[in-house]
Amino acid sequence: EKAKWPKETIELWERLSKKEANDVETIEKSIVHHVTTTLARAAYNMDNFSAYQAVALSTRDRLISRWNETQGQLSKVDPKRVYYLSLEFLLGRSMDNALLNMGLKDKYGEGIKRLGFNMEDVIESEVDAALGNGGLGRLAACYMDSLATLDYPAWGYGLRYNYGIFQQRIVDGYQTEYPDYWLNFDNPWELPRLDISIQIAFGGHVQTTQDEYGVTRHTWIPGSSVQAIATENCNNIRLWRSKPTKAFDLTSFNEGNYEKSVEDATNAEKITSVLYPNDNTMAGKELRLKQQYFWTAASLHDIVRRFKKSMREWSDFPDQVAIQLNDTHPTLAIVELQRLLVDEELLSWDDAWEIVTKTFAFTNHTVLPEAMEKWSVPMFEYLLPRHLQIIFDINLFFLQKVEKKFPNDRGLLNRMSIIEEAQPQQIRMAHLAVVGSHKVNGVAALHSNLIKTTIFKDFVDYYGEDKFVNKTNGITPRRWLHQANPQLSALITEALGNDKWLKNLSLLKGLNAKAEDAAFRKKWMTIKRANKVRLAQLIKDRCDIDVSPDALFDIQVKRIHEYKRQFMNILAVIHRYRTIKSMTAAQKASVQPRVVIFGGKAAPGYYIAKLVIKLINSVAAVVNQDPAVGDLLKVVFVPDYNVSVAEIIVPASDISQHISTAGTEASGTSNMKFVLNGGLIIGTLDGANIEILEEIGEDNIFIFGCMAHEVEDLRHAQRYRGVPMDPALQGVISAIERGTFEDPKIFQPLISTLTVGKDFYLISADFASYITANQQVDAAYKNQEEWSKKSIRCTANMGKFSSDRSVKEYADEIWNIKPYPVEDEGHL
Ligand code: AZC
């Protein structure tokens, strides 16, 4: 079209689409422009929130200009792209990050100040995009940051929930849940793409016919459909939302069935209404299965549409497209692509299956049995009849090959089958994901080895070792150091002479030498203290508890789960409390004061996890007002832990706790965030703790507890040989049962999880070494000079845990994609 335009028209477009300048005055003009036109507000009746909206819109303008340029250049090259399918993107706030990435935070800060506002208040007005539960969702957000920073051609696909993870409030010590209606105000970080709308079908039946060559063809005749509408975020993430299908409404209307059509319309919108609030557990709800199909079908349709524009052969598909499955949630994409290729594009089954298996790769994030996704066959058949047939065919051909390789082993076929023979039959999504992918990865070295010897052992025997690889998780240093800890970031840049470390985190090694520099250590610890003051203020505001920033800040923030053992932490706090209470004044004088801080949400239906929150709050209520303890011990539960709160908490730790039973935490990523910010950790030999230990050295980490290979024997011994409970733990339990913290009846179900033979997470077995490790922490903290050296060495040796490293490994070893650098005059 453009080619037909006269020269003057083209020139006019080019002249007028020049990017805005980056001087303070132009920035101010664009802010005021958005206030007076987009927001239609007068300068005089503005609050912080409108200021935020205007700054966000102005920032977005700049992001979009750059983004358009990138996409324009990319579409000419048309390189192989990766698509990251994740049901969760836990993004948090966007504005601070966007301004820092463009190198414009200072100029915007100056502009907004001259306009009568304070940048920090404006930033605080943004609500979190909390479309995720925990580690898995935040990992997706960090990976999108790294993919963009490293110029990889990549798209994330997810769902645009109306309600993100619930808001947590504490009422009488108990968690209560409130809806997170985060779209109450317009979201300036998304662009609706009303032009991208896809019909998604459900239900109905399958028609089988013979084509003119006598080949059997299957046609899915759906019973209903909904529309998927795309919204794009400035970070290359495409989120789908559901809307009623117009055509479908009309049929109902025409049949005179107004009520039914209204009902169908609301049902359609329900699909993307709410994020399921379970972390590491599977609920098995029909609506969740609908979400999964809706999202994978829309995403695949979009991917295939983009591929078809290039007019290539289908066999080229895996050379143009890599799809990464973030856990088993998007596994239906495997089935949907096979269906499109066989039923709609009329490829042979084998040709199609070769394309499918070369395209997909699968990341496993957990070995916990309660998290393994299974769908009941009858429910699945009702929603997706043709997909069920395809799954049974995939399984049949797969098991035939297994039988050929390992003949006469019924047990093996039963174990490996995609279909579990239960009442009713169940589809094992993890098996389907392994069979349909060319690579399967775990998220830390220990975890990747564990999956090879446990849940996927038979598959390793069948496929060989090469299909199963490790990709240790990482975090983005742009958000988790540069943005969350600006003072430390500035000090590091000053010490290293430049900020190249932000894109090459191994350069932090240069800080090792600085550990010997007393003046540097002093600056380092001054910043830590300032961060603790900032957290103390948040604790005052949210919990009305006064804590001293001179005490040791001991933090455990993560989802509440039995395997993460917050229960063990609070039991040890009770032990500490009882110890202090038994001391003379002289003995107390040498106690290291400690503030023990908890945060995290429990799944609304997870009764035991919710009782742990109640116990923490009951202990806090007693300890915090006990004059015999004073400042020696404070206990805090920070409500509504989320990404923005984490940005305050992470830089403020002296020690943080990563104390899962060995072999249960696949990786953990907050461990990386804390250590990167110069916080030491106490932890078990689990997940990424092991690799952190390898990088920073045993002098800079507190390790305790049993090892993964010992867990089975310990459980067995406890169950069948009646190993008695640890005596210190016994004392703590007795104190609870005596009513030291509220009515002991409340906590009985919790205590029952520990009674001999039942302590599945081995709290008793690890308790003594846990107490010892905590004493070592106290002793080490007494020597502040040595502590500050440890702190600096922690940060200095964390280069490996940048998500840039993780993403590059995926790109080189799984996706086979290359970066395409685009002209960019930005700062980072
Ligand atoms: C989590 C793991 O529990 C955590 O250890 C890991 O760091 C994180 O994924 C990112 O890899 N797993 C989940 O959240 N898993 C599910 C199924 O929810």
SS-based structural class?
A: alpha/beta
Average predicted confidence as pLDDT: 95
> Reading side by side through the largest sheet, how are the strands ordered?
7-10-11-4-1-12-13-17-18
Uncertain stretches: none
What share of residues are in beta strands? 5-15%
CATH architecture of the largest domain: 3-Layer(aba) Sandwich
The shape, in one word, is: globular
Broad CATH class of the largest domain = Alpha Beta
Distance between the termini: 36 Å
Number of helices: 34
Task: Estimate nothing, just give the exact number of structural domains.
Answer: 3
Rg over CA atoms: 28 Å
Count the beta strands.
24
* Approximate helicity band: 40-55%
Examine the coordinates and then state which fold CATH places here, giving the name of the CATH topology of the largest domain: Rossmann fold
Q: What does the largest sheet look like?
A: 9 strands, mixed
* Ions, cofactors and other bound molecules: N-(acetylcarbamoyl)-beta-D-glucopyranosylamine
Protein name: Alpha-1,4 glucan phosphorylase
Modified residues (N6-(pyridoxal phosphate)lysine): 673
InterPro entries: Glycg_phsphrylas, Glyco_trans_35, Pyridoxal_P_attach_site
Keywords: Allosteric enzyme, Carbohydrate metabolism, Glycosyltransferase, Pyridoxal phosphate, Transferase
